[in-house]
């Protein structure tokens, strides 16, 4: 179009490529959503092919009979088996020792406990003062009526 010409463009004859949209709608109509989540900014449809529905990976360890192994695989099997058991034992003993010596507690836990104790004590004192004063405090002090004779 020329920028100098002011013609009205008739767009009623333009055919949009809607095959992509209809193909997506057709595929969505074949699948039923597992669940539909409604949010303030729109809806979310979850289908069963999502990654959360994937079957768990089989991670079972097959038992090896050490009697059927040759010398080198047998030595490797025994080394890893004993090493694994020793590592588990060291982990258990280390956790027990850390608990016994108090290493697992935060470094300044006593300060944190003292802060909470003082905060509770202060709130208790303020509550008792409020009960004693019956609503009278420094702000209401000027509202007293003095009978001067």
What would you note in describing this structure?
Among the domains are: 37 residues; 29 residues. The protein is flat, with a radius of gyration of 39 Å. The chain is mostly helical and 149 residues long. Helices cover 46% and strands 7% of the residues. The mean pLDDT is 77.
Biggest sheet, spatial arrangement of strands: 1-2
Query: Care to count the β-strands?
Result: 2
Q: Which residues form runs of ≥5 with pLDDT under 50?
A: none
Average per-residue pLDDT, rounded, comes to 77
How much β-strand is present in the residues? 5-15%
Helix share, percent: 40-55%
Protein name: Protein FAM177A1
Pfam families: FAM177 (PF14774)
InterPro entries: FAM177
Organism: Melipona quadrifasciata
Topology, pairings included?
Elements lengths: L18 H12 L4 E5 L2 E5 L24 H31 L7 H25 L16
Antiparallel strand pairs: 1-2
InterPro entries: FAM177 (IPR028260)
Organism: Melipona quadrifasciata
Protein name: Protein FAM177A1
